[in-house]
């Protein structure tokens, strides 16, 4: 990033934003790396419902990824 600050990028990272241990959210990056996870922000009721419905499948996929990583 060559010393830039105030860079916002989305990434799938370890998170406490949802029940899933990882989630994709916008991150504030600076010269020293991650400065702040900006979280989900304000979601509509419809968006909240979609996130809630996606969590079981997401948690399952995270578990598969973690299991694979531990075998390597």
TrEMBL record:
GO molecular function terms noted in the UniProt entry: L-malate dehydrogenase (NAD+) activity
Biological processes, Gene Ontology terms: tricarboxylic acid cycle
Family annotation (SUPFAM superfamilies): LDH C-terminal domain-like
Span of domain Lactate/malate dehydrogenase C-terminal: 5-68
GO cellular component: mitochondrion
Keyword Oxidoreductase: yes
Regions that span the bilayer: none
Top-rank taxon: Eukaryota
Keywords, comma-separated and alphabetical: NAD, Oxidoreductase
Keyword Cytoplasm annotated: no
Name by which UniProt lists this protein: Malate dehydrogenase, mitochondrial
Organism whose genome encodes this protein: Trichonephila clavata (Joro spider)
Gene name, Swiss-Prot/TrEMBL: MDH2
